[in-house]
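Appendix B. Chain record.
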Amino acid sequence: MTASPDRREQILQLLHGLGNRISPRFERCTGISSTRFEILHELCQAEELNQSMLQKAIQVDSAAITRHLKQLEADGVVTRRRNPEDNRITFVRLTEEGRARIDGYRKEKNNLIQQVMHNFSDEEITRLAQYLERLQNNMDERFS
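C-alpha cells predicted for this chain:
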C-alpha cells in the first residue's frame, strides 16, 4: 500500500509543527535555546574546539555561531581566544560556570523528553527513531 501524497505532506507538516512547538518549550524548561544547548554539549565533549569546527558540528552558519558564542561569553559560560599563530582562528571552551550549568540543562532536557514521550513504549520509540533517521539520511543524501 502506497501512502498518498497528502499523507506524506501531512508528515512533513507535523514534523515542522513539532519542531516549532518543542523549541520554545525546550527554552522555557531549560532557560537556554536548543542551539546554545548543543554548543555547550559539544564543548563539554572536548577541552577546546575551534569555532569553525563547532559551527560545522551543530550545523549553523558562521554569523549565527558568532552571535551565540558572544552571548554565551557574556553569560560567563564560555571563553574565546584567538590562535596566536593564526588570528583568523578562534578557540572556544567551557568555563567552570558553563560546566556547572550544563548539568542542570541536561536534567531539564530529560524531563521534557519524558513528558513528550509519555505513553510511548520502548518499541515505539525505537521504531520512531529509525524512521526519523531514515528521513534525515534521505535529506543528507539528496540535498547535501
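Further analysis of this model is presented in Appendix C.
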